[in-house]
Specification:
The protein is an alpha/beta fold. The chain has a single domain, classed as Dihydrofolate Reductase, subunit A, CATH 3.40.430.10. Helix content is 28%, strand content 24%. The protein has five helices and eight strands, in the order βαβααββαβαβββ. It has an eight-stranded mixed β-sheet, with helices on both faces. A hairpin with a 5-residue loop joins strand 7 and strand 8. It is globular and about 40 Å long.
């Protein structure tokens, strides 16, 4: 089984707030929603293939901030959207040391020590991570990430949070697949090389 990261990013590596202006305004970030103009069928299909790993008997692995953002964006804002039903019925494993059970969204399971809990989950389930930069960093350091699907927009923002930020462990990656969307987005899957 695998742990897969899916992320939209800019050419300069920004992953902060791709979906909407109010998604993540930390540090005064004013450019939320930057990925929306770059969406097309190819990128959607690539994400769909990876998300199917989670919804087909696996689960989502989310950091606290991403989990709380999802609750705000899906069940509250779009209760009738098809993704809301999918996200609701799929197990969501939430890494947090500050949240307590029961978590507010059904099928949500708290992980208080993901570096030690994910290996046993990974024996039985495919897990998909969206957002959750701090979680990705800690799981990568522990050698628990199996692949990154990155949709890289032809855009430079010059500011904003990055996936591969200072302190991220040095990692050699192998390009498993790559294609370009109609809007110039590079859709690339990378797999960490194991020592």
């Amino acid at each position: 089984m695998t742990v897969s990261v899916i992320s939209s990013m800019t050419l300069d590596g920004v992953v902060q707030a791709p979906g909407r202006p109010d998604e993540d305004t930390r540090d005064g970030f004013p450019r939320g929603g930057w990925a929306v103009p770059y969406g097309d069928e190819a990128a959607t299909a690539a994400w769909g293939e990876v998300i199917a790993k989670a919804t087909g008997g696996g689960g989502f692995l989310l950091g606290r901030r991403t989990y709380l953002n999802f609750i705000e964006a899906w069940p509250k804002r779009a209760p009738d959207h098809q993704y809301t039903a999918t996200l609701t019925r799929t197990p969501k494993y939430v890494a947090s040391t500050t949240l307590t059970e029961p978590l507010p969204w059904e099928n949500s399971i708290l992980l208080t020590d993901p570096v030690h809990q994910v290996p046993s989950l990974k024996q039985e389930k495919n897990l998909v991570i969206m957002g959750s930069g701090a979680l990705i960093k800690s799981l990568s350091r522990a050698g628990l990430i199996d692949e990154y699907l990155l949709t890289i927009a032809p855009l430079v923002l010059g500011e904003g949070g990055r996936l591969f930020r200072a302190g991220f462990p040095a990692t050699r990656l192998t390009l498993a697949s790559a294609k370009t969307s109609t809007k110039g987005v590079i859709i690339a899957t990378y797999r960490p090389e194991r020592p």
